[in-house]
Each structure stands twice: as structure tokens, then as C-alpha cells.
Amino acid sequence: MKKLLFAVFPALALAALCLWYYDNSTASAGSFFVDEAGLLMAFGRLAGIVGALGVMGQLLLVSRAGWLEPLFGLDRLTRFHHAAGLLIPLALLLHPPLVVWSHALQDGNRFMAQYLAVLSWDDILPAAAGELLIIAAVLLSLPFARRRLGYETWHAVHLASYLGLALAIGHQLHYGGDLNAERAWFSWTWYALLAFTAANLLWYRLLRQVLLYRRHGFRVDRTFMESPDVMSIYVKGTGLSRFRAEPGQFALLRFWAPGLKLEAHPFSFSKAPDGEELRFSVKRSGDFTARLHAGLKPGTPVIVDGPYGVFTAARLSSGKALLVAGGIGITPLRAMLERLAASGTDAVLVFSNRTRKDMVFAGELAELGKKGGLRTVHVLSEDKDWPGEKGRVDAAMLRRLVPDLGERDAFLCGPPPMMAALDAGLRGLGIPGERIHYEKFSF
Ligand SMILES: Cc1cc2nc3c(=O)[nH]c(=O)nc-3n(C[C@H](O)[C@H](O)[C@H](O)COP(=O)(O)OP(=O)(O)OC[C@H]3O[C@@H](n4cnc5c(N)ncnc54)[C@H](O)[C@@H]3O)c2cc1C
């Protein structure tokens, strides 16, 4: 399926390019590829088509579509969305001046006069406002701007780009030279693409969550403090045996309570879903998680959007696993270890924390160890009296603790700098990239 997608998308792009060429070289007014005004119009249209198709592709990438997400995982799709997002404004920025310039040449007007005239045409002003919103969302997503904005502010601006898209659709349907009645099949293909994108967004970003909630009626059953900073939330509901999730996956949770319900946040299942209850373990790390720790009450309804992610034991290809967790990064690995213990897989967990009081699930990990197959090594970086391993986990420490690590798949989850260093270190020790799997706790 993955290979099919990689083949289908370039093929679609090529088909769109051929159609654009055919359409513009056989227009009723004659080929556009003969004079300056025609060329500007043809390339202006191309920029518009590329921009609009790009935006549709971007929306599909973040639609959480069930046919796409399991192939790549939400984090990789989101990273691709960020990278591709930088190219789209380029096309969107080029589209208006090229088309306006073409009209100016045809009508013998000055460029700015033509620009102002075009703005007064039907559907153009909303489209221009829409384009500005989309470009603003992209600019505010650039790393230097994103760092200065809180997640929620950035997210709100990003959502405003949906309004931008809605504003721009009218002019596509009204003026798009490539969408006119002369080429009905082209228009219908375009409508179908718009409808496909909208249907995916509506179903996967909204209706599916509502349906899951109606089916299971998820509610907070109880909470438990695993450490001063980490709270486990047990969620129950009806018919949970039909809610299928793999250990290692995560869900976006929206707690339906004052002060919490406006935000959905991703949390990994910290225990393998067993058909009875779901467990998430949340570290107090910012304003939302602090509010959650302070105010979450048993009985609170929860909208569970998921499961998502490909960080599961299904990726184990060597038969033996090395799991490295940093702090709260233990959650997906803790759930995965249940699956590995049940199958008797040889697994070593290296679990790094600052101090003893930060260590969560120590008892559960010891219990899992008794089932055989699992060895846990706790490493503390700021506890001088700790009798076990001390310091920061790096590739040299892993090689010492796990001499056969070259024969294992590595599953990493922890602070980004630790994962980046371990990824490089493990590759240096000869573990191929396809046997190093990681979950990042940010999109
Ligand atoms: C796949 C995945 C699994 C995760 N699993 C766990 C877990 O099991 N336990 C746990 O404690 N934490 C987990 N996290 C991290 C958790 O989602 C963030 O710590 C939490 O959302 C922070 O919210 P805040 O407002 O308290 O902190 P803030 O200080 O506002 O945010 C800290 C950082 O968290 C990220 N973040 C904030 N809000 C969101 C959001 N709505 N969606 C996505 N990212 C956001 C941003 O990168 C932000 O910079 C996971 C994250 C991801 C992406």
C-alpha cells in the first residue's frame, strides 16, 4: 500500500501537468503558449493549480485518515506536512501577480491599476483574504516564529487557515479557466478532489470521534499519582473490547470539563489496552497538564481520538528488543513491554530518570520481569547515592549494558536531544536505521 501511494502521487502530479499543458495549448481562444500574456496566464494557472492541489494534499496529511495514518504514523505525516507547507505559499504567492500581469498586458493597463481592478471582481477579495490567512499560518509555523508562540496560539492561527481555504474555493470554481464548462471532466475531477479532501477531514477529524464517544461513553474512572509529577488516568467505557489499540500507540484526549475541553492533547497508552480500561500517564509539563493534574475529577467524559501511531512491537524485525526510555517517554514502552513479555521476547529496558522519585512504574516493570524475557536497568543522572547505573544514557553505556545490541531492534522514547544522540550513536555501533524506531512527544 505504501509503495502504491508512492507510485500514485507522482503519477497524479504528472497527469495534472499533462492536463494543464493540454488545456492551455488547446484553449478555445488558441494556445496560450504563443505570446507573453498567454504564457503568463498559463503559468499563473499552473501556480494556482499547484497551490490548490498542495493545500488539498496538506489537509489530507493532517486529516488523520485511517487509510493513510497507519502507513506512516501521525508524527511523520505531520513532519512532512510542515516541510511541504513551505513550498505551497510560493505557488500561492506567484498565482495572483502572474494572472494579473497577463490581464494587464492583454488590456493594455498598468500592473497596479489592473491589480486593483481585479480585486473588485466577484469572489476575488475573499480569495485574497483567504490567501493572506494561509500565508500567515505558514509564516507563523516557521521555527523562529513557532518558538515564540505558545502551542495554543499557533494552533488557533493554523486553524484560521481553514477559513482561508474556504474563502478561496469560490474563486476557483468561479474563474478557474481550467474549471470552466468547456472541460466538464476537468471540473468534475476538481470537485471530486475537493469533496474527497473535505470528507476525510469531516470524518476523521470530527465525526469519527463523536461516533467513538457515542459507542463507548469514555469516562475518567480514577486517577493515581505515580510520582509527584506523573498522574495516571484510568478511562472506562462500554464495549471497550471493540476499541482496538496496539501497545505503543497513543490517542488525542479531550476532557469534557471546564478549563480543559477546548484542547485535545496526545498521550500514549501506558498499559496495553485490555478491553476493560485504558490508562494514560501524564507528566505535568505545561499549563494544560498542570490544569489536568489540579482539576481532573472521576466521571469526567473523555473524547478519545485514536488510536494513532506506528511505534509498536509490530516493527520488531530482529526478534530481540532494546528499549530506551527517558522520563515520561516510558509510557509507550511500558505498554509495549506487556506485549513483548506475553510473547516471551528477549527485551532489555534501559530507563533513565533524574532521581529516584521520578521513577514511575518501577513495581510494574519488576513484575513484568518475573514473567521472563525482560531485564530492566534503571539509570539515574542526579542521584549520587543510587547504587545502580548513574549518569546519562549514551551509546557507550548501552554497549556496555547490552553487549549484543547489534542484534536487536532499538525502540527509543525520551527527550529529543537524548533521542537524537542515541540515534546517531546506535547507527555508529552498526544498528541499521530501519531497526531504530522512535516516538517523539511533539508534532
Ligand atoms: C505521540 C505523543 C505521545 C505523547 N504521550 C505522552 C504521554 O504518554 N505522557 C505525557 O505526559 N506526555 C505525552 N506527550 C506529550 C504531551 O502531549 C505534552 O506534554 C502535552 O500536550 C503538553 O501540554 P501542556 O499544555 O501542558 O504543555 P505546553 O508547555 O503547552 O506544551 C509543551 C509541548 O508539548 C507539545 N504540545 C502541547 N500541546 C499539544 C497538543 N495539543 N498536541 C500536540 N502537542 C502538543 C508542544 O510541542 C509543546 O511545545 C505525548 C506527545 C505526543 C506527540
Describe the overall structure:
The protein has 443 residues and is an alpha/beta fold. It has helices spanning 2-25, 36-61, 69-72, 74-85, 88-107, 111-119, 124-141, 143-148, 151-175, 184-216, 287-295, 330-342, 362-370, 395-401, 416-428, and strands at residues 219-225, 230-236, 250-255, 265-268, 278-283, 302-308, 320-326, 346-353, 374-380, 389-390, 409-413, 436-438. 51% of the residues lie in helices and 16% in strands. It has a six-stranded parallel beta sheet, sandwiched between helices. Strands 1-2-5 form a three-stranded antiparallel beta sheet, with no helix packed on it. It has a three-stranded antiparallel beta sheet with strand order 4-3-6. The longest helix is centred in the middle third of the chain and has 33 residues, at 184-216. The protein is elongated and about 85 Å long. The model has no long low-confidence stretch (mean pLDDT 90). Bound molecules: flavin-adenine dinucleotide. Flavin-adenine dinucleotide binds next to strand 4, strand 5 and helix 11.
Topology readout:
Blueprint (H helix, E strand, L loop, with lengths): L1 H24 L10 H26 L7 H4 L1 H12 L2 H20 L3 H9 L4 H18 L1 H6 L2 H25 L8 H33 L2 E7 L4 E7 L13 E6 L9 E4 L9 E6 L3 H9 L6 E7 L11 E7 L3 H13 L3 E8 L8 H9 L3 E7 L8 E2 L4 H7 L7 E5 L2 H13 L7 E3 L5
Parallel strand pairs: 7-8, 7-11, 8-9, 9-10, 11-12
Antiparallel strand pairs: 1-2, 2-5, 3-4, 3-6
Helix pairs in contact: 2-4, 2-5, 2-10, 5-6, 7-9
